[in-house]
Records
---
Amino acid sequence: MNFYLDVDRTIITKEHREALELNDFLKYLFNTGEVYWLTTHCRYEDTSSVLSYIMPFLTLENYDLIKNIFPTTWNTLKTEAINFSQPFYWFDDYLLEVEKRILLENRCLEKWIKIDLDKNGNNIMRAAKSHNPNLFSSI
Ligand SMILES: [Mg+2]
């Protein structure tokens, strides 16, 4: 299972704090599959800018965890980075219409887990489960 992870308003809040239960969330992903960045802060296999961007917002433990997230390469659309031949989930607060259409064309729109921290008390586990209640039992 591959997991693709956005940054802004997904693992950190709009107030630039780490999401609640981020540690449980990250541990679950790392115990279950491979984790990849899918964020504007990491486009060309280089994690240095995403790491320096989020370091001030994270606990030391979570920062040590996210250093193990793999980089991706994409240019204009995040969907360029997704390996559609393998099972995946994509955690992101917002997708472009064209990105949603590409997921639809690949018959996997349900693999996008929309993270709405505002509606879920800034808790990423709750936000993910509210989008797909079976998520953490089915993967
Ligand atoms: Mg975002």
---
Amino acid sequence: MEHESVERTLRTGYPEAEARLVTHCGSCGGELYEKEEVLLHDEDVFCDNDCLLDHLIDAGHVWVKVLDEEVPV
Ligand SMILES: [Zn+2]
């Protein structure tokens, strides 16, 4: 028997310890919990590629451009 698990269930109503909120995504502001896989850039934490990319575009590190013939190769 998993004593700890049973005791926690009685105490909190959940068999698993609640994941601890660690920080928020630097782009969407979503909550990021302990043991989640995140992306780090400088001092900021992001929940996924899309959020990191949005941040980089907002910060002017990445530009969105429609390709035309003037783009050198
Ligand atoms: Zn995010």
